[in-house]
Design goal:
The chain has 22 helices and 16 strands. It is an alpha/beta fold and about 625 residues long. The strands form 3 sheets. Strands 3-4-2-5-6-1-7 form a 7-stranded parallel beta sheet, with helices on both faces. α13 crosses α20. Bound molecules: adenosine-5'-triphosphate (ATP). It catalyses: ATP + H2O = ADP + phosphate + H(+).
């Protein structure tokens, strides 16, 4: 066959294959089962990358559904918008083909004046996370590629040094790129000349974090030939806006509709629960959950305000439960170190303040977040802090919403911190009467209604009224000692500690990048040491149901290899559903009322057997 015919045939085949994918996209189908057979090899991934993935702590052997679909399209040079649930592996879905493309261009003689690839993320934490992943892959593959990260707190001279060369890949936030352009560290013409791949990760958050102007500045420099990739966990008008601003005729990959109900945005392996309790009763409820071992560790707890997180920390430490707090007020070095320690399993409870939505609402009348981000008053808190979104927490088994998020998107991102990739997880939301409205919004967003067998958020069966009441006296008595002044002092003390830590960390980690044990972030902040008798719960306080429930949670934890001694280990993959107490245990929890309302908690021993069973997925 003549060479021209062969090329024609190849092109026809390719275009047919593309049409097929296009058809699937149009009907919103990413066929997980049918595509199952496609391995990384079959996707055409470079053997060096495959070997690197196999070497990972938790070895990565098979692509996830989004990776199966996105990787070939990215290889073909298409612009792609990929929306897939939290923890579904979107980062590698763009990183692997991006790196492979750069592998083949490193030999090119063309002298570049600016990086070939920009990866833009909404927060400093994510910047660090993606940077580490890229660096690790480059090191493992032993290729001559250079990646740098730029963060907003870097002085211009450091930015200039980082960009000297130039590196091949830049990981940063949009505001930092805009700043680099405005101070001349990055040159517009050079960007326009060199940029080949632009990734907007966590695209649904980029605009809500106030980066619209920065992205507009950048979009003017993005050359037509540049391949643009946009990744997000949730869809929103913001994603559409970004798509129009930056992408050219992209392939849009979304998840299938679940039985015609709703997009599946929450991973199936996350079981969602809620507990009804008055605002003032939240402390005793969380104490019961943690102290009586009714949830699996590690636990990530969300509050909506920094003061609340310190109140909770002080309260819990009176009962011998040590935790660390994470918020936008802390220096970035400390925040990164806290995340690393938590991921490495050095402590089990992390209280994160997710107050971005609250601040956005408060600021709504005072001008855009983009403006406030620039104001000096905001300098005390890092406006690029975003611990909730996109951070890959390792082995978090339970997410607790101590305060409910203000939106369904906030909820999706929070509970997506568990059940990452193929691991299992659970979320427990403490819902006060004032928060019932958002719970109902979440339920209807999830397609959760009385007649729907796919109920996705259910009353938590392991926490009974008796369990809560057994601790009420101690909890209420102890809560009185956690005064506003104590909270204020603890917050100030923690900040002082962390500023000192931050300096030490900076110096220490330049020399010992892998040393995690240097500083502990879960130190006791109470002025008075906790009373020893509160550390133990006497047996007589507990009823048989609660004892049974906590025994089962402990057994399940042991079965999953998910306890403290299993530090730095992931949960065992072959954990059987039958061992999961949430799938076999039946106890009387708060009863689910009619849609739009909620019945009071039943008395112990009442009609739990009649309650509709949640169909666990
Ligand atoms: N093919 C795979 N097999 C097993 N684990 C994987 C695979 N791909 C990625 N992972 C792991 O899954 C975890 C979640 O991946 P990632 O952070 O990319 O999720 P995400 O889709 O970006 O989530 P989010 O929307 O919350 O940011 C990571 O720990 C990653 O190493």
């Amino acid at each position: 066959m003549a060479k021209d015919d062969k090329t024609k045939e190849k092109n026809e085949k390719e275009s047919k294959h593309q049409q097929e994918i296009q058809l699937n996209q149009e009907s919103n189908v990413v066929e997980e089962e049918e595509d199952e057979a496609r391995s990384f090899e079959e996707l055409g991934l470079d053997p060096r990358l495959i070997r690197a993935l196999n070497k990972k702590e938790t070895s990565i052997a098979e692509p996830t559904p989004i990776q199966r679909v996105a990787i070939p399209l990215i290889f073909q040079g298409k612009d792609v918008v990929a929306r897939a649930k939290t923890g579904s592996g979107k980062t590698l879905a763009y990183l692997l083909p991006l790196l492979q493309k750069l592998f083949s261009t490193t030999d090119s003689n063309r002298k570049k004046l600016s990086p070939s690839a920009f990866i833009l993320v909404p927060s400093g934490e994510l910047c660090q996370q993606v940077y580490k992943e890229v660096s690790w892959l480059i090191d493992s593959c032993k290729v001559q590629l250079k990646v740098v990260q730029l963060t907003s707190n870097m002085p211009a001279s450091d930015m200039r040094n980082a960009l000297a060369g130039p590196p091949d890949i830049l990981v940063s936030t949009p505001s930092c790129v805009a700043k680099s352009l405005s101070v001349g560290v990055l040159k517009s013409e050079a960007v326009n000349d060199s940029l080949e791949i632009l990734v907007l990760d966590e695209a649904d958050l980029l605009l809500s974090f106030g980066y619209e102007e920065d992205l507009k500045t950048l979009s003017a420099l993005v050359p037509r030939r540049c391949q643009c990739l946009l990744m997000s966990a949730t869809s929103s008008a913001d994603v559409d806006k970004l798509k129009k601003l930056i992408l050219h005729n992209p392939y849009v990959l979304t998840l299938p509709e679940v039985e015609g109900v709703k997009d599946e945005v929450i991973p199936k392996n996350v079981q969602q629960f809620w507990v009804s309790c008055g605002d003032r009763d939240k402390l005793v409820h969380i104490l019961a959950l943690l102290k009586l071992d009714l949830v699996q560790k590690k636990v990530l707890i969300f509050t909506n305000a920094i003061d609340m997180s310190f109140r909770l920390k002080l309260f819990l430490e009176k009962f011998g439960i040590k935790s660390a707090v994470l918020n936008a007020e802390l220096p970035q070095n400390s925040r990164l170190h806290i995340l690393e320690e938590f991921n490495a399993g050095l402590f089990d409870y992390l209280i994160a303040t997710d107050d971005r939505e609250t601040k956005e609402k408060e600021k709504a009348n005072e001008g855009s977040l983009a403006e406030t981000r620039k104001s000096k008053k905001q300098a005390k808190q890092d406006s690029e802090f975003g611990v909730v979104r996109g951070i890959d927490f390792k082995n978090v088994h339970t997410v607790i919403n101590y305060d409910m998020p203000l939106s369904t998107n906030g909820y999706v991102h929070r509970i997506g911190r568990t059940g990452r990739a193929y691991s299992t997880g659970a979320s427990v939301s403490l819902v006060s009467p004032d928060e019932m409205e958002i719970l109902e919004e979440i339920k209807s967003f999830l397609g959760d209604d009385e007649n729907n067998e796919l109920n996705v958020i259910s009353p938590y069966p392991l926490l009974t009224k008796n369990a809560v009441e057994s601790l009420r006296y101690r909890a209420e008595d102890t809560a009185k000692s956690v005064t506003k002044i104590a909270v204020r002092e603890a917050r100030a003390q923690d900040l002082r500690n962390e500023i000192l830590n931050s300096e030490k960390l900076k110096a220490h980690f330049e020399v010992n990048p892998r040393d995690l044990d240097l500083l502990k972030h879960d130190k006791v902040l109470s002025k008075k040491p906790p009373a020893p008798h509160l550390s133990d719960v006497p047996d007589y306080l507990l009823d048989a149901t609660t004892k049974e429930a906590s025994k089962m949670v402990r057994l399940a934890r042991a079965a999953m290899g998910n306890n403290n001694s299993a530090r730095r280990q992931g949960p065992k993959r072959n954990f059987r559903k039958s061992k999961d107490p949430l799938k076999s245990f039946s106890a009387q929890g708060p009863r689910r009322g009619r849609k739009g309302g909620m019945k009071r908690e039943g008395k112990d021993g009442d009609d739990s057997h009649k309650r509709k069973k949640k169909k666990f997925v």
